[in-house]
Amino acid sequence: MWSRIARLFVIKTKFEAFLVIYGLGTGAVERGMHYRAQYPGTQGWVLFAACTLAVFMAGAKIIEAVEIGIND
Questions:
Q1: Residue 20: CB partners within 8 Å, gap ≥ 6?
Q2: pTM of the complete model
C-alpha cells in the first residue's frame, strides 16, 4: 500500500523534473524578495542570490538523476 503511494512522488521524466525545478525557482524568488524587503541593501541581494543559487544546484542534481536513471 505504501509503495503505491510512494510511487506518486518519484520523478520519472525530464518534464516532471522541469516542473519541480520551476516550482522550486518560483518559491526561491518569492523568498528572495522577502529577504530584500527585510534586509535592504547588499545583505538582501546576497540572500536573494543564495536562494536562487540553491535552486540551480538542486536543479542540476535532479536533472542528472533523471538522465542517469537513478529512480528506476
A1: 11, 62
A2: 0.81
